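Long-time lurker. I teach an intro course on protein structure, and each term I like to show students one example going from raw sequence to a predicted 3D structure in token notation. This year I'd like something fresh instead of my usual example. Would anyone be willing to generate the tokens for the chain below so I can use it in lecture? Attribution to the forum is fine with me.
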Amino acid sequence: MYIYLNSNYVKEEEANISPFDHGYLYGLGAFETFRLYSGHPFLLKDHLDRLQDAMQHLHIHLDINSLKVEKIIQKLLKLNQLENENVSVRLNISAGAGELAFGAMDYAEPTVMLFMRKLPAAPKDLEKRGQILTIRRNTPEGEQRLKSHHYLNNVLAKHEIGNDPSVEGIFLTKEGFVAEGIVSNLFWVKDNAVYTPSIDTGILNGITRQFIIQCLNKRKIHVAEGTYKLEELMSAEEVFATNSVQEIVPIREISSQSFSGKKGEITQTLQKIYMQHKMLLKSRDEL
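-- Reply from a regular --
Happy to contribute to a lecture. Here you go:
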């Protein structure tokens, strides 16, 4: 597999970074993962805008647009013979090599890496089972949660539930409010209204989450963002999880409580909208 690393296209086994990269030493880095549908980078602008915002918070000086990400993607697709495949792409930016001393620094030479992998075909009529995690969602390190290298909370959660792809681990906050999945955002439906935890709970403001909210607003379906106790989620009619790789995944049950799963009316509507636009949009503002 070829990857992009600091303006070069290299085989993965030939790639290397400095041992003094502060992304490695101190976790100073952020990333975006997004889908390509036969070469089309769905919602790419939204992903790059969020990554640019993360760079500012981390004092990493890089104009994301100067990378010409789409050109990099297209070249890697050809090198890896993936032009007609459904592909997951990760764009990772870390602070770059710095002094060994810990301190307040600005970074002008970050490490930029982009790589991709072919995605297996998703099972038809995919549903998942939700499991409430005992480990609580940690609070963001700063004002808002970044899609950063600080992933220990998520890793510990995966160790709690294991690697069964049919199970979605669900975080609660330390106050007991519903937060998010390990790598997903949550939505649920009750009385023809859609509910989702507010970013004030410390969740990641997912790109697919934002797209779904915009879809709901366009369809005049009431969507509420707030703080919700577990019993409010458990009383729902439909529950689904979203992220940029798995798209929209119905949740059929949480603990002993059952939901509509793949038969949910609003879930099906949103899945159809997603399918109609995934080969067209580069920003949710184009919806």
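Some talking points for your students: Residues 44-57 form the longest helix (14 residues). The longest strand covers residues 29-37.
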